[in-house]
TrEMBL record:
Assigned keywords, A-Z: Cytoplasm, Disulfide bond, Redox-active center
Originating organism: Pyrocoelia pectoralis
UniProt xrefs under InterPro entries: Thioredoxin-like_sf, TXNDC17-like, TXNDC17_dom
First-listed, main subcellular location of the protein, grouped into a coarse class: cytoplasm
Gene Ontology terms, MF aspect: protein-disulfide reductase [NAD(P)H] activity
Family per record: Belongs to the thioredoxin family.
Compartments, as annotated in UniProt: Cytoplasm
A cellular-component GO term for this protein: cytosol
Protein name: Thioredoxin domain-containing protein 17
UniProt domain Thioredoxin: residue ranges: 7-124
Pfam families on file: TXD17-like_Trx
Length: 126
């Protein structure tokens, strides 16, 4: 079964990812807008992509890790100096973004709403 993790903010993300330097299995990281008190993301595109990503995740190898990272409030995300934008390991341009960690595969924005692309990211051998 895919191990799922929920992370809030850049500092927690940076610390958490140190655990995955030499892990077995694939690591997928999904960046999304943080949740409002209602439990729903402030990001409309993230809301649209979420069910598609969750459905395709069923195709990932059982020893994989799926890490959902809430990047912060809309104000934090829109700041050009947001560390998720400036960190060379993430360099996010848009949310949602789905990355196969340690590999070049990355889906951004509306690509995360296309089931065939998301499924390919979770099942592609290389």
């Amino acid at each position: 079964m895919v191990k799922q993790h929920q992370i809030e903010g850049y500092d927690q993300f940076s610390e958490f990812m140190k655990n995955f330097a030499n892990t077995d299995g694939e690591v997928y990281v999904y960046f999304s807008g943080s949740k409002l008190p209602s439990g729903i993301s402030w990001c409309p595109d993230c809301i649209k992509a979420k069910p598609i990503v969750e459905e395709a995740l069923k195709l990932a190898k059982p020893n994989s890790h799926f890490i959902v990272v809430d990047v912060g409030s809309r104000e934090i995300w829109k700041d050009r100096n947001c560390p998720f934008r400036t960190d060379p390991k993430t360099r996010l341009l848009v949310i949602p973004t789905l990355i196969r960690w340690g590999h070049p595969q990355k889906l951004e924005g509306e690509q995360c709403e296309k089931p065939e692309l998301v499924e390919m990211l979770f099942t592609d051998e290389e």
